[in-house]
């Protein structure tokens, strides 16, 4: 036992010294960071993390990071680009603290899916690079979700995007499609995962053109040798840097967030369309928490088409599924379909169906009051809808304040920060749900209302 402890101590000191040396090399080679075209063989830099356990039984992983650590394959690679990427993360002292709640919600699912496909486990950490594990993240180029999938890529992959639902934001759908895409890219580049990752970031065509340029000049065609956009030259090294940090977190004095090696959510059948607020009430969870597991659900109620499931915390899954199975139709969203007649107006139709013009606009995705004879309107008929409307209009008695959207903000994060709901922000600001928040955009919030 004493020998094992001594070996552990020696190993950690050795790793720490090597990493300090490599950091110094990285700083010294800063001018070469964007142009270096080589990577040091793994065996010449750091011993495998598994070597520490040669004389000791591993046992089950102590947490999810331990499970990931045991499967890492890129953590021993090093060059100036990787060193710079590692320093990028190490300088963000609160990075892992900030991602802790997201990692606790989503990372287990990502690991499960990557393992099931026998892909490099580092792929499960790619959303840390892409979105810092924020499923509500929207880039300036409209890439969305954990995996930052562009609209055009989503259409190419056949992902659902409509008024009710955006698969790019959905935890399960986005992961399935992103991994399908990465697997196909790996095949296209003969199993070279670094090229596949570069293509995921900048496009397969761009990587292929870079390869052809190098071939025409008689140059190497590995990832490190290609002339690629600056973002892509930094993208892959950041994933490798995260691999190194997870592998040698103790030596680097990085405290990884507490993420249990257990699922955080379960998918349950709703038994039909239901308001998100009603589902949250039945589950006994906050609406914001329920939305954090279902970011792909864009509206006040679950999408009318799809697999009819929502994600909920594991602890409430069984009782909520039982409650939903016994829920009467009067507490669900039901619809009437009304064919517009000549001379109709939204005001007249709303009065006839004892509803409100604003509701008809929202559920039918209308921009104004113009309607055409012969078109069909969907009219919600639900008692719970009225309760949802009342909640969404809360704030008239609260304290009014302005808020300017900052880079990286999402409706979810703003709602969580000010203890309000996403629906409230949308209603207070008459937001177009089909458009995402932009940095500099002004919002009005009502805080402390009853």
Low-confidence stretches: 4-11, 23-37, 41-56, 390-397
Helix count? 18
Strand content: 5-15%
Average pLDDT, to the nearest integer? 83
Range of helix content: 40-55%
Helix-strand layout with pairing:
Layout (H helix, E strand, L loop, with lengths): L1 H27 L35 H6 L10 H11 L4 H22 L9 H6 L19 H6 L14 H18 L4 H10 L1 H13 L13 H18 L17 E5 L6 H8 L3 H7 L15 E5 H12 L8 E6 L6 H7 L4 H7 L12 E6 L1 H10 L6 E6 L6 H8 L3 H8 L12 E6 L3
Antiparallel strand pairs: 1-2, 3-4, 5-6
What does this structure look like?
- Helix content is 45%, strand content 8%.
- With 450 residues, the chain is mostly helical.
- It folds into four domains: 246 residues, Lysozyme (Orthogonal Bundle); 66 residues, no CATH class; 46 residues, Roll (Membrane-bound Lytic Murein Transglycosylase D, Chain A), CATH 3.10.350.10; 54 residues, LysM domain (Membrane-bound Lytic Murein Transglycosylase D, Chain A, Roll).
- It has a two-stranded antiparallel sheet with strand order 1-2. A two-stranded antiparallel ribbon has the order 3-4.
- About 10% of the residues have low confidence.
- Belongs to the transglycosylase Slt family.
- This is LysM peptidoglycan-binding domain-containing protein.
- Pfam families: LysM, SLT.
- InterPro entries: LysM (IPR018392), LysM_dom_sf (IPR036779), Lysozyme-like_dom_sf (IPR023346), Transglyc_AS (IPR000189), Transglycosylase_SLT_dom_1 (IPR008258).
């Amino acid at each position: 036992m004493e020998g094992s402890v001594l070996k552990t101590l020696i190993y950690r000191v050795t790793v720490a010294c090597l990493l300090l040396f490599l950091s110094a090399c990285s700083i010294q080679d800063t001018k070469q960071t964007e142009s270096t075209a080589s990577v040091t063989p793994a065996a010449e830099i750091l011993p495998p993390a598994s070597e520490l356990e040669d004389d000791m039984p591993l046992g089950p992983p102590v947490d999810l990071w331990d499970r990931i650590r045991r499967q890492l394959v890129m953590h021993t690679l090093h060059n100036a680009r990787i060193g710079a990427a590692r320093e990028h993360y190490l300088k963000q002292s609160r990075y892992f603290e900030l991602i802790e709640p997201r990692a606790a919600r989503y990372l287990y699912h990502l690991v499960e899916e990557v393992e099931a496909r026998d892909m490099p486990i580092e792929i499960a950490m790619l959303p840390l690079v892409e979105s810092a594990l924020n499923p509500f993240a929207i880039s300036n180029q409209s890439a969305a979700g954990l995996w930052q999938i562009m609209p055009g890529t989503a259409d190419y992959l056949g992902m659902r995007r409509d008024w009710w639902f955006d698969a790019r934001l959905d935890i399960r759908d986005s992961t399935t499609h992103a991994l399908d895409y990465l697997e196909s890219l790996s095949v296209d580049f003969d199993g070279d995962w670094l090229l596949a990752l570069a293509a995921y970031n900048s496009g397969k065509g761009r990587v292929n053109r870079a390869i052809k340029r190098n071939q025409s000049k008689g140059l190497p065609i590995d990832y490190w040798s290609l002339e690629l956009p600056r973002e892509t030259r930094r993208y892959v090294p950041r994933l490798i840097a995260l691999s190194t940090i997870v592998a040698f977190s103790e030596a680097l004095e990085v405290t990884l967030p507490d993420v249990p090696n257990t699922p955080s959510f379960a998918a349950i059948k709703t038994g039909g369309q239901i308001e998100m607020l009603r589902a949250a009430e039945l589950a006994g969870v906050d609406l914001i928490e329920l939305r954090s597991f279902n970011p792909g659900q864009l509206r006040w109620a679950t999408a009318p088409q799809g697999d009819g499931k929502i994600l909920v915390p594991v602890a409430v899954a069984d009782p909520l599924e039982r409650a939903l199975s016994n829920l009467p139709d009067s507490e669900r969203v039901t619809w009437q379909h009304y064919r517009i007649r000549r001379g109709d107006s939204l005001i007249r139709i709303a009065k006839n169906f004892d509803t409100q013009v604003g509701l008809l606009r929202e559920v039918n995705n209308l921009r104004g009051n113009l309607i055409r004879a012969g078109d069909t309107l969907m009219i919600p008929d639900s008692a719970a809808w009225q309760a949802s409307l009342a909640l969404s209009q809360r704030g008239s008695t609260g304290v009014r304040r302005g808020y300017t959207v900052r880079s990286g903000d999402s409706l979810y994060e703003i709602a969580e920060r000010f203890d309000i709901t996403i629906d409230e922000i949308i209603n207070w600001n008459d937001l177009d749900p089909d458009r995402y928040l932009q940095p500099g955009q002004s919002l009005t919030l009502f805080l402390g209302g009853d």
